[in-house]
Every structure is written in structure tokens, then in C-alpha cells.
Amino acid sequence: MTQWPDLSAVELLVAIAEHGSVSAGAKAIGMAQPNASRSLARLERALDVSLVTRSTTGARLTPAGLMVVDWSRDVLSAASVLIHGAATLASSGGGELTVSASQTIAEHLLPAWLASLRAEHEDVAVRVEVLNTAAVLAAVLSGSCEVGFVEGPRAPSGVHSAVVARDELVLVVGAEHPWARRRGRVTSEELVDTPMLTREPGSGTRVRLDDELRRRTGRVVTAQQELASNAAVRVAVQAGAGPAVLSRLSVAEALATGAVLEVPVDLDLGRELRAVWTGPRRLTGPSADLVRIARAHRF
């Protein structure tokens, strides 16, 4: 009789491939390190094939292990469909969906996405956590939410992701700031030399700005004051406290009314907004529908 492999061991193998070591893979799926080593050894015995070669720098999949990982993704995806389908049948309601989102997305895009989701899933209770990008990724990796939405110039490591929208950062000042009357573009060197109002480290806005400045000048923004929300930074700019770089989404209304003014810069500050999740590469259920809605939404 065929001995079926333990699905948790299969999930561990895929996590090792994605995170580069047994310990990191185990952490990603919430498995203790000693249990992970035993689970991997049992999987290799059950399949009668060597899957992973360990070294001081991590774990490397064998050629056979690479093939097994590809097959394993399909197995985990099918198992996810089974689990979500059974949960739907067992529940009189539609269950609960926990979503974590960075501030810009949560404030300006997520409400419309959730309204469309509710039209499709009236019986699904949605719980939303508003965090910065780094904290959203931590929540997704810990399993405390089913899907997250983050900002950044590139796909984050350790999670599956899909681009759902695009955004850009803009330099804004108050009406009395000297740059308000400026004709030419503000250079990257001027930005790093000027004390700025900024979001806190770990926010997608701060990371994107620092990455671009580092690429251009080898330096990062000089923070005059760090504030924990887009609204707080915008109000401080409007009050004349200093310049700031914020998402166009978060300052669109203030720009339209003239409360703050946009100043051109010689930087490319476009960025992608992504859905992120762990587990099977293919989402199912309300999570998948929410990502589909986000990708189709126009703003």
C-alpha cells in the first residue's frame, strides 16, 4: 500500500526552497527546528530520495529535491482547495478573513476593494489590520493574516506576491516654503542635505525614498521629524514644518485644494502595490477574490 507523505513535511520542503535554510523554512511555517529536521528526514525516507544538502550557509535542494518541490506546490494547492472547501461546507456562515494593509493602501484603496468583496461574499466577516509595510510582511509570515497588501519597489522575499496597483511618491511643501516658488527640479543631493518630515522606518514610503536616494547618492533622507501616519506628515507640511515625500494617493485632495504644493524632483519614485501571502502559490476563496478585485480596480 502506498504511504502518503506528511503534508506538513511537504510544506516544509517548499518553505526551505523559498527561504534558503531549514531553520528559516521551519520558522516561516511555524514549525520548531528539531521537529523540522525530523520531519524532513521522514519525508526523505518515505520518498526514498535525498532532497536537501545542508551547509554552513544554509540548505541547498538536490536536483531531485527541486523536482519534488515543483510537484509539491501542486499538492499543497490542491490541499488548500480541499481545506477551504470543507470549511465552507462545515460553516453556516462564510467564515472570517483577516487582512493586513499598509497605511496608504488601507486609507485610500482597501475600502473600495472590501465593498466589492462584500457584494460577492455577504457572509464573510473581514477584519483589517492597518500596519506599515514591514509589519504587514511580519503578520503574513507569522500566519496572523491570510493576505496582506504592501508598497515597495520590488517583490519582497519569503512570500508569494502579485502586483495589484501602481503609485508614485511626490515631494510636497507648504505654500510659504522656499521650494514652493521653485522653477527647476529639486535634486537628489538637495533632498539628502535637507531635513525632511518623514514616515517612520519600515514604512513603504520611507523605504522607497531611502532606496532611491541611496542608489543616487549613497545616502538616505535626513529626518527632521518622524511621524507615524501619512495624515500627520501631511498636516505638518501644510503647517510649514518642512518638506516631505508622500504617496500621491495620500495628498491628492490637499494638492487639489492648494493646501500643499507639489515640487518636481529628479528622482523616479514610482512603486508597485502588491498583495502578499504564504502557503500555496495559488490563493483560493475570499482571499483570492479580494486580490482579483484589487487588480481589476481602477482609481
From TrEMBL:
A GO term, aspect molecular function: DNA-binding transcription factor activity
Alphabetized SUPFAM superfamilies for the sequence: Periplasmic binding protein-like II (SSF53850), Winged helix' DNA-binding domain (SSF46785)
All residue ranges annotated as the HTH lysR-type domain in the record: 5-62
Keywords: DNA-binding, Transcription, Transcription regulation
Keyword Transport annotated: no
Highest taxon of the lineage: Bacteria
InterPro entries for this protein: LysR_HTH_N (IPR000847), LysR_subst-bd (IPR005119), WH-like_DNA-bd_sf (IPR036388), WH_DNA-bd_sf (IPR036390)
Similarity comment text for this entry: Belongs to the LysR transcriptional regulatory family.
Protein name per UniProt: LysR family transcriptional regulator
Species of origin: Nocardioides marmoriginsengisoli
